Amino acid sequence: MRSLLIHVSKDSLSTALQAALKAISANSSSRVLSGIHIQAQAEGLTLTASNIRMTIEYKLPVKMDSMIVHKPGEIVVPACYFYEIIRKLDPGLIRLEIAETLILNIQSGYTQFRLCGMDTAEFPRIHYVDHPNTKKIRMKNTLLKQIFKHVVFAVSSLETRPVLTGVSLQIDNQNIRVVATDGIRLAQQVVENVEDYGVSPLNVIIPGSTLEDLLKIINDDEGSSTQIEIGQKQIRFISDGLRVQSALLEGTYPYVDNLIPQVYISEVIVKTERLLRVVERIAILAGESVTLGVYHSGILHLISRTADVGEAKEEIPLEYLEGEYFRVAFNGKYFRDILRAIDSDTLRIRFAGKERPLVIQPVDMTSSTLFLITPMRTQDGG
Fold it and tell me: Which of 87, 123, 245, 361 has a CA-to-CA distance to 231 between 20 and 30 Å?
């Protein structure tokens, strides 16, 4: 099936391309995986991109004003060139046609491109084969985005411990728990009494890169939902016309409960947005370390200092203080990332000692969200 002729609106095609292209690897050693698979069938157009570990498929259904299939067919074309061509075309309907073997004609108004294609035989596909052990749950997109957005930033970027590049997902009856850590910071979200998914207890590790891409492209309308299909080695997200399939990470996620301090020396509450603005300001002069301290009642002090550059200091009034005064140094960038993941107007910081992680929690969120950041051993952290 090689002959192809369709008309598709630029807006619809651009939306589908932007979603699918997130699976394209910039450093792919495979020519076919640097391409995008275009397949037209009677029911619509499907665009697929893959990097072996993750495959994204986006379907555009037939619509009289934006998607018309005249002849079914398929081809793989270089993704970067195809996207740039479509992006620069004028608004309106675009004609895509395979007029000769492995050549895609792209026409919009008086503009025409001929793009060399590749054979589709070796291109990865998403195979929808139900395995007896596949677990299926349906989750509202608003909840899916909420639980993963709060933790995915904390995954490790280093491949030395592959499981830490992923997010641990645990589902037990009506409770969902997601955890991410890179060994320096930890983010945990627990949502209780959500819905009885009717599946046996579930414990898998999803690649952080897959979740980051998914959060950017799924619809977050109130009524939208996603079906999550979890097999032994793969996970699949199905939402509207979008299909995202990814390999799960193998291995055992580290036990993190013992990292969370249960006894605290000090506790403060502060306005989230104000603290974020201050951290972003003083981090301008920070190498890595930012020092946070409470030296007298009612004031939170933040200091950053870099040799041969300068220093910055700022004070923030506290909403609440209990316990001893304290001082601790931490990675300013990591602390900023945590603050950006907090939706609450105020947050709670708990200090358990110089050798223990700093605990950060939103104050006014119904779900249980918790962040840890390990202190840095510097002179300022004392």
Answer: 123
All residues at 6 or more sequence positions from 327 whose CB lies less than 8 Å from its CB, including other chains: 291, 292, 293, 294, 295, 380, 381, 382
Q: What is the pTM of this model?
A: 0.89
Domain of 205, in residue numbers: 135-247
Q: Among the three residues 116, 149, 170, which one is the final residue of a domain in this structure?
A: 116
- Number of structural domains (the chain) is 3
201, 306: one domain: no
Domain assignment present for residue 126? The answer is no
What is the pLDDT at residue 186?
97
The DSSP secondary structure of 6-37, one letter per residue, reads EEEEHHHHHHHHHHHGGG--TT-S-TGGGEEE
Domain containing 34 — which CATH number? 3.10.150.10
DSSP character at residue 224: -
Nearest residue to 98 via CA among 78, 81, 117, 80:
117
pLDDT number for residue 378: 60
Cβ partners under 8 Å of residue 199, min gap 6:
135, 136, 137, 171
Same domain, 54 and 142: no
pLDDT confidence bin for 381, thresholds 50/70/90: very low
How confident is the model over 219-247, as pLDDT tens digits? 888 789 999 999 888 999 999 889 999 99
Q: Which amino acid is at 180?
A: A
One-letter amino acid of 273: E
Strand intervals (E) in 26-157: 35-41, 44-50, 54-61, 67-71, 73-78, 93-100, 103-108, 111-116, 135-140
Quick one: what percent of the chain has pLDDT higher than 70?
94
Q: Is residue 379 domain-resident? A: no
Rg of the chain in Å (alpha carbons): 25
Task: Report if residue 185 sits inside a domain.
Answer: yes
Question: Do 58 and 20 contact (CB within 8 A), yes or no?
Answer: yes
